Amino acid sequence: MAQAVRVAVTGAAGRVANSLIVRIASGEVFGPDVPVILQLLELPVAMKTLEGILYELQDCAFPTLQDVIITDDANRAFEGCNWAILVGAAPRGPGEQRSDLIRKNGPIFVEQGRVLARRAASDVRILVVGNPCNTNCLIAWRNGRDIPAERWHAMTRLDHNRAVYALAAKANVPVTAVTCMTIWGNHSNTQYPDFTNARINGRPATEVITDRQWLETVFVPQCQERGKFIIDTTKVSSSFSAANGAIDHIKSLVRGTPSGDWTSAALVSRGEYGVPEGIVFGYPVTSRGDGCWQIVEGLKLDEFGQQKFQITLQELIKERDVVQDLLPS
Ligand code: NAX
């Protein structure tokens, strides 16, 4: 039997985590022969709910689930973890902009970055889901710098999947026909879902969907506002689709991305595509299945794309400036 993988999940009693935890426990992510130890963190007020989740996990009798730790102490939750999925944060409510959350949620990630650096396993990978996820990731990384920068990721995979679905639906093809999608920049309504480099059945998406006006004025805003659309429809933010994005993100890292394709993740920039170093920016990425991302370099953006790229970049620079006091040098 392989060595157990320790997976810490914060916000474990919340809606996103609810869908996430079961899929990790089931063996779907790390495989049927890899035992999983879940280390679940919540606020004291939610511990009773988390206790209920523990009982339900026990009642699933998953052969892969070796142990479950529930705690309100980040030191315990992050002890020896190989993966940390940081979901815990206040979600965006009706009428609330993502930017409203920056100051509210930032301090959580100061503390969690510090504790991760002290407690996590030496091979830890961190995925930040809690919003605003790019800037929360920046805060956590800067406070946990003993962990190499390339191990800190923020989630743009839900946006990626949304964009893939939207193009597939328009072209009337299965989602598997859409490849080489990129979500550039921020997980917010400035993100740029890049239809110009995307492909449908191996052909440039713009040759299959020739209505450029639709791509620019329907597809792009629809992807950018999809989160708000879900909230307006259901009165709560996305839950199982977000959990699915996190699962897909980790699966791509563990199993690799298909040859000739890439996916999307936000990473600490080392200056790629002219993004200032240290900004957590959404890029096209590949993985060989070794837990590491490589940024796909050399993609070209047309004038429309460059404009969108700059807008999302400027937003992330502004977000960084707003939390400057939470970023130790
Ligand atoms: P819920 O309110 O259902 O759950 C959040 C949980 O986090 C709560 O149980 C709360 O007690 C816990 N929590 C808060 N502060 C904590 C802390 N310091 N330590 C541990 N736990 C803490 O929200 P949910 O719908 O699950 O959303 C969770 C986060 O995901 C939100 O920030 C939300 O905005 C974000 N999302 C991010 C997405 C993405 O694509 N990156 C999409 C979906 C989702 O909106």
From TrEMBL:
It catalyses: (S)-malate + NAD(+) = oxaloacetate + NADH + H(+). GO terms for molecular function: L-malate dehydrogenase (NAD+) activity. This is Malate dehydrogenase. Belongs to the LDH/MDH superfamily. MDH type 2 family. The gene is mdh. SUPFAM superfamilies: LDH C-terminal domain-like, NAD(P)-binding Rossmann-fold domains. Its EC number is 1.1.1.37. InterPro entries: L-lactate/malate_DH (IPR001557), Lactate/malate_DH_C (IPR022383), Lactate/malate_DH_N (IPR001236), Lactate_DH/Glyco_Ohase_4_C (IPR015955), Malate_DH_AS (IPR001252), Malate_DH_type2 (IPR010945), NAD(P)-bd_dom_sf (IPR036291). Catalyzes the reversible oxidation of malate to oxaloacetate.
